[in-house]
């Protein structure tokens, strides 16, 4: 049975990569955009949890993984960098170029 469960709005550019993950018991979604940002969403409540800013060009890829006991997110961008974010405090941990 296919039905629309909701629409998440917040990016000002096209949305490309998506990553679904569990965080503190909730199902979350990370979305990357042409607007250079990454948004973290609570899918169960259909609300934004935060915006990660740091890329200067379009976000092309996302991957969620565990690191140092926290949920982390790797983002790749057209700006030729990979950024590693701590999802829990929404802080940039490293930039790889």
Percentage of residues assigned to helices? under 10%
pLDDT below 50 for ≥5 consecutive residues: which ranges? none
Q: Which class of secondary structure composition applies to the elements?
A: mainly beta
Total count of helical runs of at least 4 residues? 0
Widest β-sheet, arrangement of strands? 1-2-3-4
Principal-axis shape: globular
Distance between the termini: 44 Å
How big is the Rg?
13 Å
SSE order: EEEEEEEE
Major sheet summary line: 4 strands, antiparallel
Question: Mean pLDDT across all residues, rounded?
Answer: 96
Strand proportion:
over 45%
Tally of strands: 8
Please provide a brief summary of the model.
The protein is mainly beta and 97 residues long.
Overview of this protein structure:
The chain has 97 residues and is mostly beta strands. The chain has strands at 15-23, 26-33, 37-42, 47-53, 59-67, 70-77, 82-86, 91-96. Strands 1-2-3-4 form a four-stranded antiparallel beta sheet, with no helix packed on it. A hairpin with a 3-residue loop joins strand 2 and strand 3 (37-42). The radius of gyration is 13 Å and the shape is globular. It starts with 14 loop residues before the first strand and ends with a strand. The mean pLDDT is 96.
